[in-house]
């Protein structure tokens, strides 16, 4: 039986070591247009060499061929040790970045969901809708390649393999992955496609993963894939382009569309955590006596501050099925709710590596605290108006049926909900289902 989010905490977190995106623009630092990567990286208060406040700011200068921006060497001070000198960072001008902007109005989307279900108003106040509020630029190739590198392994192992992979193209980098921001040194698709299979295998890639990465690189190098094509494609075209890539399944495309491209109306019907969250959300709406229970060991360390607009979630878990496979590099299923995939390909903030090794980088939201039941069973809106009775459940669905689906023995082919049931229940959220989906992950964990 595939495991849910609560039992597969290691798989999704890897992305925050796999992909470290450039910082989001501020008023002092305008957004960089697609096609370039400029600006200073904001340092976080940490003893980590990578985030140390003693790290020298990199100056930029034009190369003689005017085709690249070359940053000067960066000295990273180690407490009680000699400084680590990194080689220059060369950013190809041809590397097009997805800009840090939305294709829709976040306020309009928020208002739409609140009209559809007044409970969303309190949810938005409890927890930032991070993919759509914390905006960053990112490179689609390095994001998707990092996702492939991390398939079916722990985030620590994925981070190590990514580091070794990058060093194939820049062997002068430090031997340890903790000494630099990998985003600055990730090779371009043009670089990767020139690398032979045997060399890629020396970085710890299996034969299949090496083939997947080369296939992805070839598609970006020859123009079958590009940032512009990904941005211009509609949702259906996006799926067609990316599922054609070896090693990329529908679930991975769903995650890429939500967390990276910030598409507003994506419903990952194959994600078990979203399924469970949707069941609990609508069960509480139609059954006031239903209460969500959360295992204490899954709650954030500081729950009073973890679900406010000013606080960024610091822990995340996987809701994707992670059943052990005979072939650890087996391709994800291309449809349905039995898909086994890797980790969400999302741009991530630079991780504070000074934290304990067990700290999980954030990708999905932290679980809601038990106080979420006040919201789920809301009788009065935030404005003091009585909550109107909900519309009837879709034809064929009942409260006992939804309660039964939370019993592992009563799932449908291993799923809490079928794709059709997911579509019918969340139809009022359209065309902004992605935002509602994000909060369903915060309802996915359950008491043991």
TrEMBL record:
Q: Where is the composition biased (Low complexity)?
A: 306-324
Question: Mind listing the UniProt keywords for this protein, alphabetically?
Answer: DNA damage, DNA repair
Per the record, the domain of life is Eukaryota
Q: Name one GO cellular component term.
A: protein-DNA complex
Which intervals hold domain HhH-GPD?
Answer: 149-310
According to its UniProt entry, the protein's GO biological process terms are:
base-excision repair, AP site formation; DNA alkylation repair
What is an example of a GO molecular function annotated in this UniProt entry?
A: DNA-7-methylguanine glycosylase activity
Q: Which residues fall in a compositionally biased region of kind Polar residues?
A: 1-10, 60-72
Q: Where is this region: Disordered?
A: 1-75, 294-370
Give one Pfam hit by family name: HhH-GPD
Per its UniProt record, what InterPro entries does this chain match?
Alkylbase_DNA_Glycosylase/TA, DNA_glycosylase, HhH-GPD_domain
Q: Which Gene3D superfamilies match?
A: 1.10.1670.40, Hypothetical protein, domain 2
The entry sums up its family as follows: Belongs to the alkylbase DNA glycosidase AlkA family.
**PANTHER family according to UniProt:** DNA-3-METHYLADENINE GLYCOSYLASE
Protein's name according to its UniProt entry? DNA glycosylase
Organism the protein comes from: Cristinia sonorae
